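Supplementary Methods, section 5.1.

A reviewer requested that the exact input to the structure prediction be made available. We therefore reproduce it here, unchanged from the version used in the analyses.
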Amino acid sequence: MSDENLNPPPPFQPDLPRPRVMATLQAALARQIVALICPGGFGKTCALRSFWLEWEGPKAWLDLARAADLLASWGHARSFVEDSGLIVIDGIEHLTARDAPVLAQALDLSPRGIRFILSGRSAGGLPLPLWRSQNRLASLNAHALALGTEEWRELGFTGEAADWAGWWGARQASVLPDAPWDSEFAAWLDQAWLAGLDDASLADLGCAALLPEANAEIFAMLGNSAQIERSLTEVALRAGPLCMPTGGIRLAARYRPYLVAAWRTRSPEAWRSAVETGTSRLLARGHGALAAQIVTGVGDAALASSLASEVLHQAGWFLLLSRHQNLLRALLDVMDPVSGGVELKIFEAAWKVLVSRRPHEAEALVDQLCKEEDSRIAGPAQALNASIALQYDAFACALEHVAASRASFSDDLHPAASLAELIEASTRQALGEFDKAAPLLAHVLSCADRDRLDHLQFEALHRRASAAAQAGDIDLALRWCSEQRQRIQFAGLESAATLDASARLEASLRLRRLDANAARRALESGQGATEAFGHYWSFPYATQQTIASLVENDAPGAREGVAWLEAQLAESFVCLKWKTDALLPRIWLRSREADRDGLLEIAERSAAESWPDTIYRDRRDIYCSAARLLAREAPDLDRLAAIARGENERADLARKLIALAREDSEALLGLVQRSARARDSLDWLWLAPRALAPLETLLGAPALAGDALTRGWLRELIQHLLSPGEGQAQPEPGLRPAQPPAGLTQKEWEVLRLIGEQLTNEQIAARLHVSLATVKTHINHVYSKLAIETRSEAVLKARTL
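The structure derived from this sequence is encoded token-by-token as follows.
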């Protein structure tokens, strides 16, 4: 226990000078023990802190709420004050039945020169009557802490101090909005304050407590339109110590429910009228979130259910797509499932489709809602159906539902109209129609900004970042990711669920620049999305983590990751995008392990699947061709040529494969220069078994003599390909796997391993005690079995194996 723990906690506000209380405590310490017992809110700790700071001798403060080990804390405090001084023991109500006798015995055995002040809301099981009978104890209660008339006047307050018993405690508690409420403190507040208020004053307080912040407009909408300024002044005067320091009347959160409950008990009709009138007027003024706050805190199940239906009807879609999603969930929870009707059904379905990402649980209900005659239900339901279709890769069906949804809206003022437009933009992107998606996204962002639809805004920004990534502009995509993250933080909505899409996209962009550490950090920010959305959501994270392991040359981690991905692919549905992304680490690992049969199996099985004509099918076909190329088979050059016609990241990768297959050094040079400008290295890394030799040749090309940027980037890339990864364990001398990999003999594997250590043929012959001719024979066999053409490729293969 450090000496810092023997000091009182810091004040939340500057401590108020209390000379009368200080004198009372000083006089009470004529006894060895002083017990200060009173309810919460009277400022016990604050008064004792002032007294403790003025004490000139040895002193220690023991906070039982923070003491993990009573005996250790007590021993340290005792040694600190030795045989005389002051020990304040605060929070004695926290004493357990086991610890109370231990502390009592410790006090009994302490030297009489030590003075103790015991403070708490109850005696905590200590023998106070016994100590009082022994003339060792002086007792103080709430009356000793109440503000005196002189203190009241010195603070400049009007009225009588007797009407504000415990004001100091109220002032302190007001800065602790998250402090736990207890019946003892509530009873004190009622007896010391509310019981003496007339009905009008309590109504003013109740109105102010209905919402987090009250002002003249709020008071008018709550039906308290007469003498608004007087009412606000009255609240500010009477509730001043209970208010948070803001411009309006903002009561501390811990007091609001109690004040509303007291008003409801005293004047139930006035309370009900204010709640109903306030909800309707707030909705009419467009304050859906404030109306929802009133309804969710109303405390009457029947009234809450009735009002919640009205709020959902007028502001439900705004709440769903804005930063107030939690209020929508609260409204759904207070509604009666039987009488909730169609309003409850559509928002429960929307929550499952858009928030919890479980479309399969809402599919049947959404189909039913699409058949409703009321377009205010059927239109949004069609948008939900479009979202479900998009998540299930039914792109043509999604566009049909979008068209039906948008036809039901006369303008773009309904939030569901913007939702439908966003789904259309997302579908167009999946179909590769980026020129059609761009204006849709621009309009969605404009509407989201206008209507404060935060979650719609975040999704539209993510789609813009995805479009930039597909275009091959990594810097622009990262800027959009950053913009999305900043807006999420500004809205106060930072969580794994909201950061999920941005985290995964940013990780993929960082990996393109071989920055595995930054990619893992990005993934960490969204990793908790699996808790919000379910185990299914762990698939894309596992894909990115596996790619990061391959970038880091972590073979065990990559094998484990690929095995998990393939198990999930075999057992459950995975959307086309995620299935496509998972092809990369699967192909990369088999290429590293020279598993030719595995590469061809992936290519054949993937190409045999029937996929719609989307960017995902393009990428799948590219990966299948790459797998054949890495297996030393001819890729489908016609299909690659068709994909390579565009100007995007997919076309760029297709052109790389064509150049490698045709050994077209001129085309390869242009592609390398483009990669160098974008610092985009990932494709060259996983294509290294076929790309390394051509890249080494390019390094000496005359065309790069004046291109320092490309030459430097290419040199670093080749060094990365030939160097062991940071996390790769180096084998001990003489340590070999039980079985040689890739069908090599034991001798051939030994030769390849020594090539990986960059030994010359002569050095290998000397190490293995064989002739130079024998080494060359082994090398020829290795090159033939592993389809290796150059020494650099042999070094790369040795290190990856």
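Confidence is low (pLDDT under 50) at residues 725-738. These observations are discussed further in the main text.
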